[in-house]
TrEMBL record:
This is MBL fold metallo-hydrolase. Keywords: Hydrolase, Metal-binding, Zinc. Residues 14-194 form the Metallo-beta-lactamase domain. Transmembrane segments: none annotated. It comes from the Bacteria. Its cofactor is Zn(2+). The keyword GTP-binding does not apply. CDD domains: YcbL-like_MBL-fold (cd07737). InterPro entries: MBL_Glyoxalase_II (IPR051453), Metallo-B-lactamas (IPR001279), RibonucZ/Hydroxyglut_hydro (IPR036866). SMART domains: Lactamase_B. It comes from Vogesella margarita.
Amino acid sequence: MSLQLQVVPVTPFQQNCSVIWCDVTRRAAVVDAGGDIDRILAFVREHGLTVEKLLLTHGHIDHAGGARALADALGVRIEGPQRAESFWLDQLPSQGTMFGFPRSEPLTPERWLEEGDTVTVGEEVLDVLHCPGHTPGHVVFVSHAANLCIVGDVLFQGSIGRTDFPMGNHQQLIEAIRGKLFALPDDMVVVPGHGPFTTIGEERRSNPFVADRRYG
């Protein structure tokens, strides 16, 4: 396995910003740069990585608030989320005001992502799943080679993403988890947007929101 991952917790919400990189090329991507970009840059420099792009799972401030500033500092593109997420990315300034975050300007990525797309990091390839419900344009990044998925705020250890925000949809979220994430291997590592890692199988067996004997 040449894809490596390290979480760099950012923002007062302790969001799991993930730095992923190809061990062969030392080329990297930063997933969900919500803020604290000096901390992210320090990790990248310490490990001798070359960031080639930023990836976004969705447009909430703790996941996307630092993305444009970091992309500009590194001179790289932002890829993702799915284009329905413009609803939230356009509201980054008001989100920042609401939660007391530093101001972030509205953001439009250089590349919107759709179900079935892939993104590259060095020589590594990740599949894109569109998993709406928490937000309308939420995407998940899956590395079959490394046996891990970066799921943002879709699925957590023993929990699921909130759906009481504007444009949230509980039924869509449940369908995305059961229909798409639970189709992945049981031993695949789940990297959520907050909290500890888990596995697909563990959540399929015991998550009180989505576990079902048909999936266990």
